[in-house]
Amino acid sequence: MMAAAAQAQTDDTTPFYVGGTLGVSRVSNVYREPNATNDDTVTSVGLLGGIDQRLGRQHLTVDGSLQNNRYATNSDLNYRSYSLRSALNWQTVGNLSGVLSAKSDRSLADFNIGNGIDPDDLVRKKNIERNDEYQAIARLGVTTRYTLEGGWTQRRRDFSAEEYARFVYRQNTGSLGLYATPAGNVRLGLVARHTKGTNPRYPVGLAIDPDTSEVVVVNAINDFTRDDIDFTTRWTVGGHSTLNTRISRSKTRNSLDLLRDFSGTTGAIGWNWRPTGKLQFDLNYSRDTGQESVVRAADLNRVYTTWQLGSSYSLTGKLSLSARASSNRTRRNGESGVNLANAFDDTKLYNIGVRWAISRGFSLNCQYDHASRDSSVPQYVYSASSYGCTGQAILF
Q1: 260: DSSP letter
Q2: Which of 64, 134, 187, 378 is close enough to 84 for a disulfide, judged by CB 3.0 to 4.6 Å?
Q3: Do 331 and 302 touch, CB atoms closer than 8 A?
Q4: Cβ distance 204 to 220 under 8 Å?
Q5: Which of 3, 2, 1, 11 is closest to 356 using CA atoms?
Q6: Is there a domain that residue 231 lies in?
Q7: In terms of domain of life, where is this protein from (predicted)?
């Protein structure tokens, strides 16, 4: 919804930076409702900071931002957001190396998320979303033809609105993979992944509260597991084109009977092409369950197909253009006790932007975004857009 500030970069002699941002955006259809005209102007003031420091063989990076976002009309939606990214790339004298990373975000959640929210009770109140991810990766044999890699990832998601309880989850994923480089431009991998997680408050029905005589939502714990066997490839052509693929045999199990288990083939393909030093294209396509392709939905029993197309072009050394389009769609064949044979949900996003590096420490970013959804549930259908600019000042 807001024009995002560009990440600052430090040079080789300055291990840290601090700065600030000021942005103004015009947002249409704030609550993402059908045929709605609830437009508003959002002003955002933020602070930036970061570290980029080498410690012998190790490399530490930290980037963070804190923003105060205020609505001109819908003041009850005013909120503070933040974003934090950190990573430690480490290596030993031998062929052992890895990465320790953490990231955390806090923002205003999307309104009208669909995917099971009661269409007659769409959330209009402030709903704060928080996402955390921690990851550890270790590699043995980086400079050799064969590489053994093990990893662990923890993800957590929370919402302040009780109506979004079904999308709250915790999960841990462990992986072990063997990678081979039969040729200088080809890399093959075989990876086993195991995921174990929980939806702590998944709604399973309604009941009458004996104390208040009001209808309340009954929640239950859904524990889930997922096992994957991945075959991956990475092919680099002439230094200008890189193709990545993944084909997986995936199996998911849920402890709640109302959530169907999944067993099938998932996968993804990504292509990055740099025809010139100024022009770049990237294309990504995936077919996966909701928690992997649309993490905010945490729909383990639905399969989504997603594609993204992006490009960037440097007009001059200070002026650059960017554009991006994406589509996410699902076709549902039904859930336990509910006939959804003809159910569908298609979401499309478009973005164009321009960045002007006025000087070494000052830049201006302007962008336009459009989002729309078509769904078999009429209340989930909407169209919305936003446009605005953000100025950024960096003090090294």
Answers
A1: P
A2: 64
A3: no
A4: yes
A5: 3
A6: yes
A7: Bacteria
b/e 53-86 (16+ beta carbons within 10 angstroms → b): eeeeeeebbbbebbbebebeebeebebebebbbb
What is the extent of the structural domain holding 207?
16-395
- CA dist 82 and 130 (Å) reads 10
H/E run at residue 292: helix 290-293
How far is 174 from 150, CA to CA, in rounded Å? 8
Highest mean pLDDT among 155-164, 194-203, 218-227, 350-359: 350-359
310 within a domain of the structure (yes/no): yes
Q: pLDDT class for 209, splitting at 50, 70, 90?
A: confident
Locate 99 and state its tokens. 């990465």
Number of residues in the chain:
396
344 and 332 in contact (C-beta within 8 Å)? yes
Over its C-alpha atoms, the chain yields an Rg (Å, rounded) of 23
**In this structure, are residues 142 and 149 in contact, taking their beta carbons and an 8 Å threshold?**
no
5 part of a folded domain: no
Query: Which CATH number fits the domain that encloses residue 356?
Result: 2.40.160
Q: Structural domain tally of the chain?
A: 1
Q: 290-344, pLDDT tens digit by residue? A: 666 544 444 555 678 899 999 999 999 999 999 999 998 887 654 444 444 457 8
If DSSP codes are grouped into helix, strand and coil, which group holds residue 286? Answer: strand
CA dist list (Å): 68 to 23, 41, 43, 84: 10, 14, 8, 15
Query: DSSP letter at 291?
Result: H
